Amino acid sequence: MPDISYVNPKIKNISQKELSIQVSLSGFSFLIKAAESGECLAFKSYKFEHIALTDELIRHVSKVLAEDKYLQDSYSNSELFF
Q: Three-state SS string across 48-71, please?
């Protein structure tokens, strides 16, 4: 479950979306925005605690990617910051 979550109700009506993901040892967050207007459609942040090994980080990130329904969509552009 995310620590911070915002989802704009308009997200269902926008076909062209862009995804930006940020990953660090302390957490995972993502922003979805409308490709044309740049309007924020969704933002979620997951806090990770006591991550010391890369394998642990990979397990946490994989779980978020598999379970969050908004990360299952197609995007016109994607960025990853680590």
A: CCCCCCHHHHHHHHHHHHHHCHHH
| Chain position carrying tokens 């379970």 | 67
8 A C-beta contact, residue 48 and residue 57: yes
What letter represents residue 72's amino acid? Q
State which amino acid sits at residue 52.
A
Alpha-carbon distance of 56 to 26, in angstroms, equals 11
How many residues in the chain?
Answer: 82
User: How do residues 8-64 score in pLDDT, each as one tens digit?
Assistant: 999 999 999 999 999 999 999 999 999 999 999 999 999 999 898 999 999 999 999
Query: Sign of torsion, CA 65 66 72 74?
Result: positive
